[in-house]
Amino acid sequence: MGELEKIYQTLYSYYGDLRWWPADTPFEVMVGAVLTQNTTWNNVEKTLKQFDGNISPERILDLSIEEVQEIIRPTGFYRQKSQYLKAVTEWFLSYDCDIDLIKKRPLLDIRFELLQVRGIGNETADSILLYAFEFPTFVVDAYTMRLFRRFPINAGKTYMEVKNYCEEELPQDTELYNHFHALIVHNGKEHCKKKMDCTGCPLEVFCKKILS
Ligand code: SF4
Question: Least C-beta-crowded within 10 Å: which of 102, 126, 161, 196?
Answer without folding.
Answer: 161
